[in-house]
Amino acid sequence: MRAKTSTRRLSIAAAGAVFLCTLASGANQTPAAGPAAKPAAKPVPEPTAEVAAALAAELKLVPHQILYEAFQDNNWDLFIAHADGSHAVNLTHTPEVDELYPHANNDGTKICFLADEGRGPAKVRNLYVMNIDGSGRTLIARNARDPCWNAGGTAIAYLKGEFEEFTYRDYASKGLYVYDLKTGRHRQHPNKDIEHLYNLCWSPDGKWFVATIHGAMGFSHAILAIEADGMKVVNLKLPGCRPDLSADGRHIAWGCSDWALRVADFDTRGGEPQVLNARTVVESAKPIAFYHIDWSPDGNSVAFSRGPTSHRLGFACEMIGVQAPGWDICVADTSATNRYVAITRDGKSHKEPDWVPVRSRRP
Q1: What is the pTM of this model?
Q2: Are 346 and 56 a contacting pair, CB within 8 Å?
């Protein structure tokens, strides 16, 4: 399906209400057919202490690590920890800068991330890259958003901010760009009409970007697959937001509502991606929300953020840079429903987890 080329702009000033994933039922969002459209008949009970303890013991044996952001001592920093949450290390230690949204490359040696720098009217969100131990910090782009790596770790895709003035609004983006680490060059995606995307990810075969869109390119709210080097745009017809692709490119995970996370097959054999065999991995009752799902390198687990819904500075707490008191990182077993355990427990706005493959050196 090709998206309409006409764009319906939503100005940030006019969008006073906070738009959560539940807006996925908007006018231009087509409900998913089959299993992807069916919510669970009733909430599954939260994991018992015995289930959580058993999973925690299993995670002690997992070699992969997890990156995440946390708000501590009045500042956002990036942390890396073992899969069970132990041996957490602060990678940034920058009281004047807020580091956010960490993503590791596929060999576990580098991290791309965002940094909110400056105060007041001078505040800007910039894109950086650094080594897995926090050294070698390098500025990539100013006024940039939601970066992701290609499979080879040679390039970083990112979105440009829609406005020069800083905003926490998650969909305030305009233009998709790719930065080549070897040449230092930036190139814009051939579709110059791309805007209002957020939570960008890149398929391992390099052929597709997947992201949420809000109020642009002919869509009200949808999860799209965008051809990486072409003009094709495919509506994946998924209710919800913030998708993530597995390391093998065969599966997708996303938030189907504020209260549930789903996984499914991501099938590109027909030339255009389609989502099949969706099922719920975790779900909860209000006011506890689930967000920011991320596949483990082996596909056996997902990490995600969990906490009470609230608003800070007029923005929903799942947005990048917005404090989320009571939120922690959890890990779930993808073979079951609601078999998960919290790996952080102090509720200091732990968000945006990203797995680091085993090949990295543990600090």
Answers
A1: 0.88
A2: no
DSSP 274: E
Q: What residues are paired with 127 via a beta bridge?
A: 114, 141
- Residue 288, both tokens: 């506890």
Domain boundaries, the chain: 21-43+88-304
Taking the CB of residue 193, how many other CB atoms lie within 10 A of it? 17
Supply angle C-alpha 109, 114, 119, rounded to 5.
145
H helix and E strand count, the chain: 1, 26
List Cα–Cα distances, 202 to 2, 27, 89, 218, 363, in angstroms.
19, 27, 28, 22, 27
Label residue 259 left, alpha or beta by phi (over 0 means left) and psi (-120 to 50 means alpha): alpha
Q: Please give the Cα distance from 39 to 132 (Å, whole number).
A: 39
- Residue-wise pLDDT tens digits, 100-149: 999 999 999 999 999 999 999 999 999 999 999 999 999 999 999 999 99
Q: How far is CA 51 from the centre of its chain?
A: 27
21-43+88-304 architecture in CATH?
Answer: 6 Propeller (2.120)
